[in-house]
């Protein structure tokens, strides 16, 4: 099935600047605020071909995302896989776009038709609903950053990588491993890079998640109600940080099962938990063939929150940026 049409940049002008000049300046400022070296390496980090980055409006998560994108090594990239969760409709399994291009204020990014059809031929992937594709922000919010970074990396449009957008649905652990096995083949290919789209804890009654760790003890997690007095040991925002750190620590182990177990305990509302899970499973498959402990595991380089919650009536969304070397 040939790819057709161009997906519009539906969130341009609202979630991020629609004017290409203004948007370019903003992204340059975000990237300039990131140090020129991280973990004793100059940026981009050689071999850092997989990143986790947030997908909220740029005024909230743009500065955090810059840390992941400045680490991302695209020097040999011929295509970039983008894995994000579905916010617009319920999805089980994974789904592929039917569009041929994705628009950005800077220009269009071409979908890799050959690889998309290879994945479709496995019989394991559905098609993204067209209206869901247009409305979905988890993939789109990464496109301006991707376009910015490829223009910084390549001298001509003929060299620009294609993209492979994939929506990752509500899958259990074994199902994530099945998709991880499929993507592991592409992870081994040095021509490929991967962007994993995820915010972290969505905390507050509006998210139906008010988990709290009394005394800073995750094992004693409980849910707060409006009738309770404002807790101070620790402050709510510190408890949220502990919940996110526990999830990030599980991710850093490189063991997919550890991440699944962490979420089963805390119920942390990591909206990209399934894309992260699929990529962790893929990395684990590839890691079996390489004894280098410094590779195939995510390293977090930035953590931010939209606000510091102190009262049950408040809310916040957390953002994290990470990279993995392959």
Automatic annotation (TrEMBL):
InterPro entries per UniProt: MEMO1_fam
CDD domains: MEMO_like
Xref: Pfam families: Memo (PF01875)
Transmembrane domains' residue ranges: none
Family the UniProt entry places it in: Belongs to the MEMO1 family.
Listed HAMAP family: MEMO1 (MF_00055)
Name of this protein: MEMO1 family
Organism: Pseudomassariella vexata
